[in-house]
Amino acid sequence: MPWYIECAQDDCRTRHCADYRGHNCERCGGLLEVRCELTGLNGAGLRATWIERRLSNLPLDGSGVWRFRELVNFFDDPGSVISLAEGRTPLLEAPRAGHWAGGVRLSVKHQGANPTGSFKDLGMTAAITRAVALGVPVVACASTGNTSSSMAAYAARAGLKALVFVPAGKISAAKLAQAIDLGAFIIELGENFDQAFDLVRKASADLGLYLVNSVNPFRIEGQKTLAIELLEQRNWSPPDYIVVPGGNLGNVSAIAKGLRELRELRLVDKVPRLVVIQSAGADAFYRLISTGAQELVPVMQPETEATAIRIGSPANWRKARRALIETQGLCESVTDAEIFDAKRALTVDGIGCEPASAATLAGIRKLCAAGRIGAGADVVAVLTGHQLKDPDYVIRHAGEIECGRRVQVKPEAGALRRAVERVLKASA
Ligand code: F0G
Questions:
Q1: Residue whose CA lies nearest to ligand 1 atom number 4
Q2: Which of 8, 57, 244, 360 could form a disulfide bond with 33, CB atoms 3.0-4.6 angstroms apart?
Q3: What are the structural domains of the chain?
Q4: What is the DSSP letter of 343?
Q5: Model confidence pLDDT, tens digit, residues 339-361
């Protein structure tokens, strides 16, 4: 077998049988990871194969996950892969936002261009493909919104039943609507993600549910391809920093794993420093890193308008800490007001994203101001979700956007003329 499952804890590394469905090590309780056999793979050969596939019309090659299938190789035949042509997301330069943040050379890897509008699709194609291989009938997740809409789509495509657990009234209406529209069953419970996650995690085995949260190691395999695609888009020249928002910390763990494998294959000689940005009301990981504590202390009542990352007890914190240690990474915490300003700064480059994604730029600005990221640094921010994932946020804040950007006038020619003249004067 070219892959296997083992405990991700360095002092354990217990191997598990391939059809093990749990997400925790049977010996030590730590999280698991899928190990892909890299011996025999040739870096230069892989580069050529992957580029060649960009010209292919095979469905598998049209996916930014499965195009890299030498490193995502836990399927038997191509027909068994559940894909919606995820990945292949743009890498856009954002010069004005980079200037605003402190004079960095900024580009953004926009995960909003995925089929359901977030980076979760990279992981979900992998997890649902695995669910089908295991023959499970029902998949489940707790979610702050994006995981649920992504799971709903891929489960529908695979003909599986999808069960979503979300905190009541705490996720964006757009994300909830997506999950409902795509046929998922929604169970609303608890005050926050952590409560819902804790309950579903404990109950899943008993209830016969296959959990596809980021504690599922196959999710991580899909998400690690973000690093591969990004490096390929940059002709294998690594940036100085890759910046991600941190919630349950699956994404940073996945990107670190991708980079680790690229390095092992000598596809890159330098690994970018990974940077995790958390929201100040939900920054347990930031506190862990900044204090050098050994164990994570959860934030019991996480609060932030960036609801996607409103998580008090990130499950992947050990993997994420390893990611920062390995890459000499950084961690920062930003307020909702800083996120708001950063989101607006991105729009000046014509780039929209959801609030959690804008936390990246807010963090870069803060790290630049503190001299921890230098002017001129080559920085990639991962924008995790589409602008339309949280329209309520924008409308709620519309009053803070320069007055005059949104006015209502009487439907008559004179009023219309005056309104237009005001706009023309304002933008002159
Ligand atoms: N950005 C967005 C838009 C997200 O939806 C999430 C997580 C994150 C960042 C954080 O990523 O958890 O890997 O550190 N959303 C999950 C969900 C928790 O349920 O949709 P992470």
A1: 308
A2: 8
A3: 91-117+219-390 (3.40.50.1100), 396-426 (no CATH)
A4: H
A5: 999 999 999 999 999 999 999 99
- Nearest CA to 216 out of 31, 29, 388 is that of 31
Report percent pLDDT > 90 for the chain: 92
Q: What angle do CA 344, 346, 351 make, to 5 degrees?
A: 115
Rounded to whole angstroms, the Cα distance separating 409 from 422 reads 12
Please give the average per-residue pLDDT across 301-309, as a whole number. Answer: 97
CA atoms within 13 A on the CB side of 202: 5
Distance 246 CA to ligand 1 centre (A): 7
Helix residue ranges, H only, 159-216: 173-181, 193-207
Which ligand 1 atom lies nearest to the CA of residue 249?
Answer: 14
Distance, in Å, from the CA atom of 236 to the CA atom of 167, rounded to the nearest integer, reads 41
CA of 381 to the centre of ligand 1 (A): 15
Please report the pLDDT score of residue 408 as a whole number. Answer: 85
Neighbours of 389 (CB within 10 A): 27
Confidence of residue 76 (pLDDT cuts 50, 70, 90): confident
SS3 for 164?
A: strand
Residue 400 scores a pLDDT above 80: no
